[in-house]
Amino acid sequence: MKRNTSKIHVVVDALGSPVRWLLTGGEVADITQAKSLLDGLKTDAVLADKGYDADALIDSIQVAGATAVIPPRRNRVVQRSYDRHLYKERNLVERFFNRIKQFRRIATRYEKLARNYLSFLNLVCTYIWIT
Predict the structure, then answer these.
(1) Best exposed site among 12, 27, 77, 92 by fewest CB in 10 Å?
(2) In which element (H, E) is residue 20 found?
(3) Structure confidence by residue, pLDDT tens digits, 64-118
(4) Per-residue pLDDT tens for 18-51?
(5) Please, are residues 114 and 6 in contact by the beta-carbon 8 Å criterion?
(6) How would you classify residue 66: left for phi > 0, otherwise alpha for psi between -120 and 50, otherwise beta?
(7) For the CA atoms of the chain, what is the radius of gyration?
(8) pTM of the model
């Protein structure tokens, strides 16, 4: 059975404003979109949750000259260290998602077509930028 689900992948800046965003099917893993979201982005640190803990992604972040602030998964053989104090700033992403959920069309996904939903998401992100 095919479900009408989608997932929003987003990068926010230090103020919680959206910088880049993608829309995928709900079954797509977050980490698969990380490289395309981060390509060409100039930043000092990349903050993400445990779902982004992969050696390849962390290496690509470090090659780009940024610090990966991603907590390691519990099942890692060798636990990495990360800046716990800086990781607290990841709440900006959560606050962004709470903000876009104030728009009923985003929260309930009235749009049947992904292009229409993405268009409304673009409009909401633009509104967030100008307010």
Answers:
(1) 77
(2) strand 18-25
(3) 999 999 999 999 999 999 999 999 999 999 999 999 999 999 998 888 899 999 9
(4) 999 999 999 999 999 999 999 999 999 999 999 9
(5) yes
(6) beta
(7) 16
(8) 0.89
